[in-house]
Amino acid sequence: MDLRQLRYFVAVAEELHFGRAAKRLSISQPPLSFNIRQLETSLGMELLRRTTREVALTEAGKVIYREALKLLALARDAEEQARRAAKGESGAVHIGFVGSSFLTRLASDVRAYAVARPEVEVVLYELNSYEQIDALQRGQIDIGIVHPRVLPAGVASRVLHREDFVCLLPATHPLAGLEAIDAQQLQHDDFVLFPRDFSPGYYDKILALCLQAGFTPHIRHKVRNMLTIATLVSHEFGVSLVPASLGKVQLPNLACRPLTHASTPSDLRGIWRHDERQPAVLAMLEQLAAPQA
């Protein structure tokens, strides 16, 4: 018994006429009759009672007809689900991200993908860059959005977003009245920053900016979250250099000023397994990497 035989049988069962059933199926009558006979032989029972005047379902035929409708519906549903999965329109995509990345347009990109593909389950995990690499290798996430760092073999990456660094400082700070700040003017300030082992790439870029300005920053307070940096700065614990997107954060007594010489941009990179083949995941990567107008 195969699906083609079941489709042929259903047509005959509904038409109760071999000629009309053959026309409905766009085939000739002999192969239709042959396949019905094959179905009956494989089942070991008569499904249709044939006379010169009529075709009727046997009791067994009535049962097979009902069940055949269910099987054919399941087959159509499976085919449709497979088609959607092959086009990346179903399945699941698990995405890791560093918290500050969703202050950029990447959050809108992920949301746009989720709206366009409602049958794809999009699951988000806020993790630091190191945690994302580990989760990716363990198969716990499909895509990561990280600060640049050395990646292990088997992990592919590309730049998803690039922006300048800016200065966060208390609104009461003497430099807050300036339209732009030279990093050298911060040499006597305490800094609030990530520890290097938490985000080496990000830390090294901040250090490079300061060294280019002629000083080594005094990093007094070390935290794990960008919003914590903004909060501590607003409470006058120090200043910080952060990606421009963090300037969107509005807190009492918090000011954001561009740098006059910010030659080192801040990057966010997408990471994924180099052998990734899931259509839904590849479609998300395409969405995130699309050039912005």
Order of helices and strands: HHHEEHEHEHEEEEHEHEEEH
CATH topology of the largest domain: D-Maltodextrin-Binding Protein, domain 2
Can you tell me the residue ranges where pLDDT is under 50 for at least 5 consecutive residues?
A: none
Question: How would the global form be characterised?
Answer: rod-shaped
Q: Give the mean pLDDT.
A: 90
Structural class: alpha/beta
Output the strand order for the largest sheet. 4-3-5-12-6
Architecture of the largest domain, CATH level 2? 3-Layer(aba) Sandwich
Number of strands: 12
Helix content: 25-40%
CATH class of the largest domain: Alpha Beta
Query: Beta-sheet strand percentage?
Result: 15-25%
Tally of contiguous helical segments = 9
List the helices and strands and how they pair.
Elements (H helix, E strand, L loop, with lengths): L2 H13 L2 H8 L3 H15 L4 E3 L4 E3 L1 H28 L4 E7 L8 H11 L3 E7 L2 H9 L5 E4 L8 E9 L1 E6 L19 E4 L6 H13 L5 E5 L3 H9 L5 E4 L10 E5 L7 E8 L5 H11 L4
Parallel strand pairs: 3-4, 3-5, 8-9
Antiparallel strand pairs: 1-2, 5-12, 6-12, 7-10, 7-11
Helix pairs in contact: 1-2, 1-3, 1-4
Protein name: LysR family transcriptional regulator
Keywords: DNA-binding, Transcription, Transcription regulation
Family: Belongs to the LysR transcriptional regulatory family.
